[in-house]
Amino acid sequence: MDVKIEQSWKEHLNQEFEKPYFSKLIRFNAFKSTIKLLGKIQIELILDNEKRFNLR
């Protein structure tokens, strides 16, 4: 797996990047970022609807 990291760190950690736990960690972080984005979108939609229907 090609990880963007400083070369000196990459030399020491390269073997770890190939282990199953690391790909699980990458997928988990992607999932967490998606959930965070969806939460922001939901808040924007709620605020937009409040303005549109004068709910405030």
* Biggest beta sheet summary: none
Beta percentage is under 5%
H and E string = HH
Radius of gyration: 20 Å
> Number of DSSP strands?
0
- Helix percent reads over 70%
Q: Supply the number of helical segments.
A: 2
Termini separation comes to 50 Å
Instruction: Indicate the overall shape.
Output: rod-shaped
Structural class: mainly alpha
What is the averaged pLDDT score? 89
Regions with little confidence, pLDDT below 50 for 5+ residues: none
What does this structure look like?
The protein is mostly helical and 56 residues long. Helices cover 79% and strands 0% of the residues. The longest helix is centred in the middle third of the chain and has 33 residues, at 20-52. The radius of gyration is 20 Å and the shape is rod-shaped. The protein starts with 6 loop residues before the first helix and ends with a helix. The model has no long low-confidence stretch (mean pLDDT 89).
